[in-house]
Amino acid sequence: MKQKMGLTNMRKPSDIFDKCDSILIQRGEQYGDHRVLGNIMAQMMGAQVKADMSCADAMMVMAQLKMARLAMGDDKSEDSYIDAINYLALAWASEDCS
User: Fold this and answer.
1) What does each C-alpha distance from 29 to 16, 26, 52, 69 come to in angstroms?
2) Terminus of the chain with fewer CB atoms < 10 Å: N or C?
3) 76 CB-near residues (< 8 Å, 6+ apart)
4) Which residues contact 65 (CB under 8 A, 6 or more apart)?
5) pTM for this one?
6) What is the Cα 27 distance to its own chain's centre?
7) How many whole angstroms from its chain centre is CA 37?
8) DSSP assignments along 77-96, one per residue
9) Secondary structure in 3-state letters for 27-70
10) Can you tell me the distance from the alpha carbon of 74 to that of 83, in angstroms, rounded to the nearest whole number?
11) What is the pLDDT of residues 21-64, one digit of tens each?
């Protein structure tokens, strides 16, 4: 049976989620409640750009930073994908924080 090139070690999109969850747990233990950090980030980022930002906005900016690095092509590491996914998850979870 002939194998298609590159399909033997193909990753499933869901493979990364266990790693993302593990990192979120570790970082939560290390840094505490994401909403506290998110609000501090929002205040600092908002002051820098002279605009009001929410906790979710700050997390979205961080996700965009990670995605920009990936788009540049210099950093295609798994960590950058995990960070981007996790910042998006934190943004989603932060929609109701103030």
Assistant:
1) 20, 5, 28, 26
2) N
3) 70
4) none
5) 0.81
6) 12
7) 14
8) -HHHHHHHHHHHHHHHHTTT
9) HHHHHCCHHHHHHHHHHHHHHHHCCCCCHHHHHHHHHHHHHHHH
10) 16
11) 999 999 999 999 999 999 999 999 999 999 999 999 999 999 99
